[in-house]
Amino acid sequence: MKTRRAVLGDAHVDRAQANTTDVDADFQQFITEVAWGSVWTREGLSRPQRSLLTIAMLAALGHDDELAMHLRATANTGATREEVKETLLQVAVYAGVPAANTAFKVAKRVFAEIDADGEEAL
């Protein structure tokens, strides 16, 4: 939970926890233990590297809501906007221009929201 909160922020995790029901309680526990407790805490890749890889995979797979969440999380992971742009160019080459086009639209929206909210600039 410590890593999940460090990456996604307390507000996001608190919302996810508050919205947990009997239907998804086991899933919430699973992602906290496996994704955040086992994978994100491993040595071998830095937090910014893991962040950028996650962004690339979510963009390639078209998971726009999760992509937006992880783009917002770059404020906590140390991945820069320049690195995000480069990552999305890689997505264009290896996952297709339509996937990257959508991902760039999501990134533009998320970064504009961050800027408008006066959140820490990346």
UniProtKB/TrEMBL annotation:
Using the record's annotation, list all stretches that form the Carboxymuconolactone decarboxylase-like domain: 26-108
Q: Per the UniProt record, which residue ranges are transmembrane?
A: none
Q: Which GO terms describe its molecular function?
A: peroxiredoxin activity
**Superkingdom, natural source:** Bacteria
One Pfam family name is CMD
What is the annotated signal peptide range for this record? none
Q: Which NCBIfam families match?
A: decarb_PcaC (TIGR02425)
Q: What is this protein called?
A: 4-carboxymuconolactone decarboxylase
Species of the source: Rhodovibrio salinarum
